[in-house]
Amino acid sequence: MKKLLASLAFVAVSAPAWAATQTVTLSVPGMTCAACPITVKKALSKVEGVSQVAVTYDKREAVVRFDDTKADVQKLTKATEEAGYPSSVKH
Predict the structure, then answer these.
(1) pTM of the model
(2) Distance between CA atoms of 51 and 49, rounded to whole angstroms?
(3) Which has the closest alpha carbon to 22: 44, 52, 57?
(4) Who has the most CB within 10 Å: 5, 6, 11, 22?
């Protein structure tokens, strides 16, 4: 029984962390025309780990679903900033 418990404990400690899908809403106030969301979506879609992007011009926001083992909010905001559209997490 001790060997079984020791084996299970080892597996639990040595197993890789499972990826968690996160969703974040970014405020992108610099979008000034109906074409801007296309550029923002392309920039966010290129970030490794991003699985879904929905950009809304009227709300000036982007909802991004991503794998948190490959991407994080900093990478997402950096991508929009490099595309010319600084963003921040919408609270």
Answers:
(1) 0.79
(2) 6
(3) 52
(4) 22
